[in-house]
Design the sequence.
């Protein structure tokens, strides 16, 4: 059985999850950071993280971290941590392609005694039922005889400078008792918040997938309440502030539910539930509601424009913000795109402005070209879609200046007060 002092570590996938993990381990021990994206590796070797999750200074402090796109660099490693994306496809079904490709890569270099730890969000059972067979196929080795597995779900919150990888409690697990102990000890070397050793890999997988399913359902409830209150002419934020004076009222807010976790993870759980013959009613109802918020926002905006006799066909609208959350460049599964597409259905011309995003990435992912600057006095309507600090600092007067003499300002994120905006969720 491998001992903690003999671990030679590799991190497979250097995105929002993998890089912060690799950097923290790289401050303690030699680590190979592996990614198939050569451009990503070149940037990291030059000392810069384009996701902005890790500062240049922190990256430099990981003195024992090396980067590579070459599979041969993994040959000397004996513990592999997989941190690749697990998205959904156009049919909202789990897409395990990156995970299985990573497993294939590891399988080609896997040796007796090695351990493969997965961090990517999956449905319960995916590690042992989907990934392990690939490892066996490409290595020719037998699971829990020649090699072992672990699962420790990522808990990265992109853009959050307070809750970092080391300060968030880590769930760990392993395919045997001995492996579970080693996996737990390994993470304890960097996780100052401590660890929670789950009783099995499936328990750890299930714990991860329900974390974001719970948040998704809570936000769906608030979104539905916002729709009801809007019809009643009641300010939702005022209601939530009043209700929030009770100690046990949960502080959720309405809005678009995108990103790599909350808008995706529930579909992994519902996929597995349906595979075992159970149709999940509540989870899917929450997903349907949250997935429909983009269309709801546009319908509200169009109604407000018509009430002010603003011609909708051919109108020009500014959407402020494209990322899935504030103060980070992450475009994964952003639901702002739903608003842009829905506006186009009304033959509305849309300018998207977001100082955080890469224009090249927006073009590649969504065929959208953000404007470098909004045009003052040009817009029939303005949608504040993301609460970037840059937008907050503009203030209501400067945001209104971007609109024509007669325009509608829709604040999705409560950046402005009720008096300073025309519409709020």
Sequence:
């Amino acid at each position: 059985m491998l001992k903690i002092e003999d671990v030679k570590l590799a991190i497979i996938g250097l995105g929002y999850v993998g890089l912060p993990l690799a950097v923290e381990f790289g401050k303690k021990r030699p680590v190979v950071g592996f990614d198939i994206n050569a451009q990503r590796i070149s940037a990291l070797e030059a000392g810069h993280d384009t996701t902005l999750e890790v500062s240049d200074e922190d990256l430099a402090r990981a003195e024992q971290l090396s980067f590579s796109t070459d599979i041969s660099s993994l040959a000397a490693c004996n513990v592999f941590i997989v941190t690749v994306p697990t998205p959904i496809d156009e049919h909202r079904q789990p897409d395990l392609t990156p995970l299985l490709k990573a497993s294939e890569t590891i399988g080609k270099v896997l040796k007796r005694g090695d351990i493969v730890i997965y961090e990517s969000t999956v449905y319960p059972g995916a590690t042992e039922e989907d990934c392990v067979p690939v490892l066996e196929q490409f290595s020719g080795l037998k699971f829990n005889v020649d090699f072992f597995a672990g699962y420790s779900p990522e808990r990265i919150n992109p853009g959050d400078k307070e809750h970092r990888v080391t300060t968030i409690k880590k769930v760990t697990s392993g395919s045997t008792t001995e492996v579970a102990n080693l996996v737990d000890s390994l993470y304890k070397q960097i996780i100052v918040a401590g660890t929670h050793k789950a009783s099995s890999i499936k328990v750890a997988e299930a714990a991860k997938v329900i974390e974001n399913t719970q948040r998704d359902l809570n936000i769906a409830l608030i979104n539905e309440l916002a729709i009801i209150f809007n019809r009643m002419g009641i300010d939702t934020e005022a209601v939530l502030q009043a209700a929030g004076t009770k100690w046990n009222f949960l502080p959720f807010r309405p809005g678009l539910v995108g990103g790599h976790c909350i808008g995706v993870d529930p579909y992994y759980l519902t996929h597995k539930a349906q595979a075992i013959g159970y149709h999940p009613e509540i989870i899917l109802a929450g997903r349907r509601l949250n997935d429909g918020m983009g269309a709801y926002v546009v319908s509200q905006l169009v109604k407000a424009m018509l009430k002010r006799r603003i011609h909708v066909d051919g109108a020009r609208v500014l959407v402020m913000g494209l990322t899935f959350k504030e103060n980070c460049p992450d475009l994964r599964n952003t639901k702002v795109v739903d608003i842009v597409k829905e506006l186009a259905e009304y033959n509305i011309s849309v300018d998207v402005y977001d100082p955080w995003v890469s224009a090249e990435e927006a073009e590649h992912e969504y065929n959208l070209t953000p404007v470098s600057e909004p045009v003052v006095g040009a817009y029939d309507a303005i949608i504040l879609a993301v609460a970037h600090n840059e937008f907050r600092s503009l203030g209501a007067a400067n945001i209104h200046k971007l609109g024509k003499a007669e325009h509608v300002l829709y604040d999705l994120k409560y950046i402005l007060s009720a008096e300073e905006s025309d519409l709020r969720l």
Summary: The longest strand covers residues 403-411. Residues 329 and 358 are 7 Å apart (CA to CA). The mean pLDDT is 95. The first helix runs from residue 18 to 26.
